[in-house]
């Protein structure tokens, strides 16, 4: 194994076969290699700009993700924010900070994952930055996307009378994380790998940002508010409620629970709903649609081969976010979720 050298790395990226193909992608005028990238936006479109960081021990450990997964998920989590705006991702920049002595093979594996995700979603990686760090490996991905002028979907536009929807199963990523931490061996080297947990591990290591669902929602013309699930369903519902000045009631019996999540939660003596509400990193979309348009939207999703679950309703501000439980009681939903600096509520963070 050889250690990384900054300029050798940039040459590798610039001359590498993946970047050579992606740099010639549509809209890339000047890609990796000059002081900055030059790209062309489509006429009549608005740009959507977002970045997300993943750092060792906070977002991944050797026992939870392989290097390819780290690259893939860093790109996927940033792409998910483009989906949450109803946009199409186009270009990406990658900032990589590594401790001295990091093996070249590690960087190559991370880039394999980055490029795998980028090419799946038609994204050209057009540049980035590389530094040493007196700390843990840190990866920041900036993604530039597009949407038709004035069509971006916001968190702040939910209205009383809307139905609340989710695009797929939630809670599986956090359950996958619990499984991986419980195994406590380098990711992929498990001796026991119960079949049911495969989907959970996949959900944690290879999340699928919902670009297609975001497009169906945007084109439907009826979607009101939209958000993606990075910190847990409860946290994302609170974000929509606060940004829109509304209250939200989730209905427990309407929230879909994947079989593998139910089975795994049982082995842990946990309620699957805890993973769903407070786990995070699902990168599904949640949002609102006027209740009268919900069925029509569900049909559009069905036609596209996608799932859309109505899981609650929006009401006037006053009660915050609540859960209508299966036992008939309506209880307030704590504003918990993954918070990077929340030692206090014990839901992660430092
Ligand atoms: N350090 C920062 N400086 C400027 N803006 C920031 C900073 N951190 C976050 N933001 C902005 O705050 C808003 C919310 O960011 P946040 O990271 O909570 O959302 P998110 O990316 O959807 O969630 P997550 O990071 O959990 O995936 C975004 O508009 C983001 O660009
Ligand atoms: C080793 C390890 N411990 C805990 C977690 C859980 N986790 C970390 S960050 C985050 C929220 C999303 O990140 P962000 O808000 O930065 O976008 C969650 C749920 C993990 N993935 N790996
Ligand atoms: Mg963020
Ligand atoms: Mg988001
Ligand atoms: Mg977060």
From TrEMBL:
Domain PurM-like N-terminal as annotated: residue spans: 33-146
Instruction: Give the reactions, separated by semicolons, that this protein catalyses.
Output: thiamine phosphate + ATP = thiamine diphosphate + ADP
Q: Which Pfam families match?
A: AIRS, AIRS_C
This entry's Gene Ontology molecular function terms read: thiamine-phosphate kinase activity
**Its annotated pathway?**
Cofactor biosynthesis; thiamine diphosphate biosynthesis; thiamine diphosphate from thiamine phosphate: step 1/1
Q: Record keywords: Chloroplast included?
A: no
What does the entry list as the binding residues for Mg(2+) 2?
Answer: 52, 81
Residues involved in Mg(2+) 1 binding: 52, 129
Question: Which stretch is the leader sequence?
Answer: none
Q: Show the InterPro entries listed in the entry.
A: PurM-like_C_dom (IPR010918), PurM-like_N (IPR016188), ThiL-like (IPR006283)
Binding of Mg(2+) 3 occurs at 35, 81, 228
UniProt: Mg(2+) 5 binding residues? 231
Q: What class of enzyme is it?
A: transferase
The PurM-like C-terminal domain is annotated at: 159-321
Q: Where does ATP bind?
A: 111, 128-129, 155, 230
> In its keyword annotation, does this UniProt entry include Nucleus?
no
The positions annotated for binding substrate are 59, 281, 338
> What domain of life?
Bacteria
Q: What is its EC number?
A: 2.7.4.16
- Which function does this protein serve? Catalyzes the ATP-dependent phosphorylation of thiamine-monophosphate (TMP) to form thiamine-pyrophosphate (TPP), the active form of vitamin B1.
Similarity remark: Belongs to the thiamine-monophosphate kinase family.
Query: Which named protein is this?
Result: Thiamine-monophosphate kinase
Lineage, highest ranks first: Bacteria, Bacillati, Bacillota, Bacilli, Bacillales
């Amino acid at each position: 194994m050889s250690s990384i050298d900054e300029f050798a790395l940039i040459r590798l990226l610039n001359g590498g076969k993946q970047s050579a193909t992606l740099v010639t992608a549509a809209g890339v005028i000047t890609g990796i290699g000059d002081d900055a990238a030059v790209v062309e936006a489509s006429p009549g479109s608005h740009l959507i700009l977002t970045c997300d960081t993943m750092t060792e021990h906070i977002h991944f450990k050797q026992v939870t993700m392989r290097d390819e997964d780290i690259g893939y998920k860093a790109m996927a989590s940033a792409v998910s924010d483009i989906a949450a705006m109803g946009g199409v991702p186009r270009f990406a920049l990658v900032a990589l900070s590594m401790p001295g002595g990091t093996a070249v093979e590690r960087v190559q594996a991370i880039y394999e994952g980055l490029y795998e995700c980028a090419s799946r979603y038609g994204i050209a990686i057009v540049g980035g930055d590389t530094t040493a760090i007196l700390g843990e490996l840190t990866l920041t991905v900036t993604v530039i996307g597009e949407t038709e002028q004035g069509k971006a979907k916001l968190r702040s536009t939910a209205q009383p009378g809307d139905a609340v929807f989710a695009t797929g199963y939630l809670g599986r990523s956090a359950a996958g994380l619990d499984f991986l931490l419980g195994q406590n061996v380098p990711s992929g080297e498990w001796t026991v790998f119960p079949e049911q947990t495969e989907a959970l591990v996949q959900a944690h290591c290879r999340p699928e940002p919902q670009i297609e669902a975001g497009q169906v929602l945007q084109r439907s013309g009826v979607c009101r508010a939209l958000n993606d699930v990075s910190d847990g369903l409860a946290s994302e519902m609170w974000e929509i409620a606060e940004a829109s000045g509304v209250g939200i009631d989730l209905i427990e019996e309407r929230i879909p629970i994947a079989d593998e999540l139910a089975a795994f939660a049982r082995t842990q003596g946990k309620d699957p709903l805890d993973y769903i509400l407070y786990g995070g990193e699902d990168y599904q979309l949640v949002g609102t649609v006027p209740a009268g348009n919900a069925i029509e939207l569900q049909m559009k999703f069905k036609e596209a081969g996608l799932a859309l679950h109505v899981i609650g309703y929006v009401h006037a501000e006053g009660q915050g976010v609540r859960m209508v439980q299966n036992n008939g009681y309506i209880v307030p939903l704590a504003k918990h979720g993954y918070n990077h600096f929340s030692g206090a509520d014990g839901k992660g963070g430092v």
